[in-house]
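dumping this here before i forget
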Amino acid sequence: MAIDREQLLHVAHLARLELREDELERLEGQLNDILHAVSKVSELDLADVPPTSHPHDVVNVWDEDEPRPCLSADDALANAPEREGDFFKVPPGGAA
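structure:
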């Protein structure tokens, strides 16, 4: 499996990336190297390997939920670039 220039341009468009010609060439090579490396898995005999989402047994490592004191507003906002009262102050606007 390989990615061609048309597919790369389509993905760049979906990701809203503007790529220069040299970036396109470099990225195409890098992505194809990654795809080639990942395709090596298909060469392995995995008949006796059960499907798994994690290589190790995973157990719940969370502590019990116990109420405890929270940070004060001053502590929580101590490193904020700007604040307004007990809130972070951010520029107006939003994601495009």
